[in-house]
């Protein structure tokens, strides 16, 4: 009986979400719209439409216009759209920065963001010495086993970091760090040093190094990484290329609106 009740509750929640989306689409299409018209479009009672609008209004997604009782899209939608636009701007601006850095270093350069517990690569360029043709754009990679992921993790507060690492840490190679205390200590060093490295932690024979990219408020919004074969991207060379990578990241951050002191 509990399973049936749970299924009914889930179905009801999905239906409510679907109706809320329909309300937003209706307002976007028609502009100012009264509750009677909204209820009619949804095929529901006015009381049901009123509850939906109250929830959307509480989140700033719709607003009631004065005493007329009509509703319109709220500024909360602008906030959500701004977040999506920011990601698109980052990917667009990042392509040029990735290409310039890849040409300078001769290695593959990627920009990644954190999303739902993983790192997603949103831009990539391959340098002249790159030996792989793999396209990482759009690929989801683990936070704990990549240089980009470590940069993104190091920038999070403790609560957010715990949420991102709530699952069991998968061991991709014998060198993958899966001990949480050991990983926490490494992330503290990343935050202090300003860069992270991965030595055969995701794939045997591959090394990588990453630096943070910052948004207008100074928050870390992405990680810029360079990766290559271990025989060429040695620990010594990684230390040598951190400076040009950090400079490229500063230039991209400035384009996003962040200017360091």
From TrEMBL:
HTH iclR-type domain residues: 14-75
InterPro entries on file: GAF-like_dom_sf (IPR029016), HTH_MetabolicPath_Reg (IPR050707), Tscrpt_reg_IclR_C (IPR014757), Tscrpt_reg_IclR_N (IPR005471), WH-like_DNA-bd_sf (IPR036388), WH_DNA-bd_sf (IPR036390)
IclR-ED domain location: 76-258
Pfam families: HTH_IclR, IclR_C
Ranges in coiled-coil conformation: none
GO terms for biological process, alphabetical: glycerol metabolic process; negative regulation of DNA-templated transcription
Gene Ontology molecular-function annotations: DNA binding; DNA-binding transcription factor activity
Top-rank lineage group of the source organism: Bacteria
Keywords per UniProt: DNA-binding, Glycerol metabolism, Transcription, Transcription regulation
Known function: May be an activator protein for the gylABX operon.
Name the record gives this protein: Glycerol operon regulatory protein
Organism: Amycolatopsis echigonensis
């Amino acid at each position: 009986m509990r399973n049936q009740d749970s299924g009914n509750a889930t179905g009801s929640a999905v239906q409510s979400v679907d109706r809320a989306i329909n309300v937003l689409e209706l307002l976007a299409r028609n502009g100012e719209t009264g509750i009677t018209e909204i209820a009619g479009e949804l095929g529901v009672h006015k009381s049901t439409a009123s509850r939906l609008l109250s929830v959307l209004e509480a989140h700033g997604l719709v607003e009631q216009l004065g005493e007329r009782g009509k509703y319109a899209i709220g500024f909360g939608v602008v906030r959500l759209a701004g977040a999506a636009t920011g990601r698109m701007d980052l990917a667009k601006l990042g392509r040029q920065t990735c290409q310039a850095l890849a040409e300078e270093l001769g290695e593959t350069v990627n920009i990644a963001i954190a999303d739902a517990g993983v790192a997603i690569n949103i831009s990539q360029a391959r340098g002249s010495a790159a030996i792989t043709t793999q396209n990482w754009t759009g690929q989801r990679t683990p936070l704990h086993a990549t240089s980009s992921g470590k940069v993104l993790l190091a920038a999070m507060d403790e609560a957010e970091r715990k949420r991102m690492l709530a699952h069991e840490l998968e061991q991709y190679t014998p060198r993958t760090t899966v001990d949480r205390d050991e990983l926490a200590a490494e992330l503290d060093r990343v935050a202090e040093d300003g860069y992270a490295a991965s030595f055969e932690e995701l794939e045997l024979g591959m090394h990588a190094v990453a630096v943070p990219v910052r948004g207008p408020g100074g928050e870390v919004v992405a990680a810029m990484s360079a990766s290559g074969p271990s025989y060429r991207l040695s620990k010594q060379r990684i230390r040598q290329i951190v400076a040009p990578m950090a400079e490229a990241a500063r230039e991209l951050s400035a384009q996003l609106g962040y200017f360091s002191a």
